[in-house]
Amino acid sequence: MTDSDTSPSPQRPPSGDGPRPAVPEDPKGPHREARLPPLWRNRDYNLWWSGTAVSGLGTHVSALAFPLLILAVTGSAADAGIAATCEAAGRVAALLPAGVVADRHPRRALLAGASLVQSATMGGVFWAVAAGRPGLPLIAALALAQGVAAAAFAGAAAPIVRRIVPAPQLKAAYARVQARDFGAQLAGAPLGATLFTMARWAPFLADALSFGAVTLACLFVRTPLGPDTAGRTAVRPPLLRDLLTGLACIRSNPFLRYAMLWSAVTNMLLAGLGFMFIVTLRGHGAPPSTIGGAEALASACALGGALAAGQVVQRVSGHRIILIVSWMVAAGVGSLVLLASRPWLAALCLGASLVLVTPLNVVFTTGVMANVPDATTARVLTTMGTAAQSFAWLAPAASGALADAFGVDAPILAIAVGLALLAVANHAVPAVRRLGAGPEGSGEAAPDAPQGKER
Fold it and tell me: In this predicted structure, what is the pLDDT of residue 451?
């Protein structure tokens, strides 16, 4: 396998790959992007995107099948929740160590190894179901192992897009990643239900096989995936200090501090919204089939926005996207209270408010990447991911308690108020106000970006 990159990229290679001739400065500045080959001609990005798309589809297929399997075996919703909790616990617990490992050891090997472990765990679930022995302890243990392996993969995958895509095309690349995820989510649920109806083991076999696609993608990407070893000392810092490096980097940078807080609060509010959308429609008399259709409609709107995000982020400044979309989401969620008795209108309202969430995510993601050197990318992003996931689990329980105490509309209003406060903060925080002067390129250079030499 070669580590050379045949696709043009302004990213500097690791020092161990030898010097690259200096590229003269482009007098046209931002218009340099027009001379780059389009993303569809970037072999490594398309290989990576395709492999992770297949794997993501398999993950959403099995995510629907897991609770259906436990319900069919034990008839207990609590038991179904145990398996989901084990997977989430493994993922959250392993994220920080995964970031440290990904910044210390070859990421290509970590990605391939984590994918193979995930394939083996899903193969274990398939074997247990096909053999007629899908006991809860075994399924829970396999779900825990799956969560740990997923965290290991996420840590090693964090810097990959930035390494295989030229900087001016990062926004478009991240927009396509968001579209990939929405598409996998939209297609995975009905496919998982269909496969489970055909045979209970079928969704888990499909997921096990899907990890083969991302394993091959990891092996055949030609760009060096890091971490770069030039300039590193032979003596590694203590593990605890390495675990806290991501947090120290975030604390030292105003934009990263705000981005971590913003992502944690937003994830918590949107997790509560996803739960309460179902509860509110049901509380206003909507049958389950209508609720499922309404959720699919809202997801389709979000997918449409994700598909258009690449064009939006190239034409509108990042700061303007943040301000407009923040208020759109807050207003759309608040309007659900008025439309809850009309499920299809409620779904259209929710979908319209979420249609530009992908450009918002892309702006924050590229801003974060502009502030983080490759050597610490995995640790910083896994720290932010841990913060985001650590609070999201509180939302359904808190929303349910509010609904029981004050009615189903109260949590929706509380979520809308929370989103409105975030929108106000986006106006007030200097780090956000200075996020990019224009839409060109990747990385509207985020404020207070590290000034060290890129490896």
Answer: 33
